Amino acid sequence: MEKNYPDHVAIILDGNRRWAKEKGLPSLQGHKKGFENIRDLTPYIIDKGVKVLSVFAFSTENFKRSEEEVKYLMDIFVNWFKKESETIHKENIKIVFSGRREPLRKDVLEAMDYITEKTKNNTKGIFNICINYGGQQEIADATKKIATAVKEGKLNIEDINEKTMYKYMYQELPPIDLMIRTSGELRISNFMIYEMSYAEMYFPKTKFPDFNREEFEKAIDLFNNRDRRFGGNTNEKKSN
Fold first, then answer.
1. Known active-site residue 227
2. Average pLDDT rounded to a whole number, residues 220-233
3. Which of these is catalytic: 7, 14, 16, 128?
4. pTM above 0.85, yes or no
5. Using CA atoms, how far apart are residues 136 and 49, in angstroms rounded to an integer?
6. Could you tell me what percent of the chain has a pLDDT over 90?
């Protein structure tokens, strides 16, 4: 039986530090392994026909972690975006970012802007990287944009509905079909809460550095065995 791959998959990349601890490694090495893993998974997932892959790379709350860990992650972002930009570009994947720019470092923002510009015309799929991101903050920021548009006469209040919100999010992306949170934690942690309204959810115990292609296929098998209801009949297809 042919598998049905969802249009939009979102992954909370959880368990990096615990993975390292289990292996007797410094916790920061878990983050390094996690980035290596998402580099392998991204083209594989998009090659399968997934149109959008969103990943929770760094939340607004993550700034509360130790200065050493935050710096390490920011350094990884800069190095990864510069190092992988040409490879991602050749794979025809478009990279976009979701989240607030403040208070990200200047070199992080420059690396983000560089890879965004380089891949902006790519058409195979979208890789949405959520950095300094919070779902409630995204809704608040979208509301401000809508209020400004109404004030400037660019939008009528009567035209605002649940679909309008998507146009004012950090990126205009389709609703999430499947959300995966690795490491067994059973919460969504303020991740894309508006876009996830009717998403199927999967919480494997596998920590993200070990969440390989085979583990992803298990998630797809589960997705294919779910009856998606959207508040009504089974197997409905909801579109933005």
1. no
2. 82
3. 14
4. yes
5. 29
6. 90
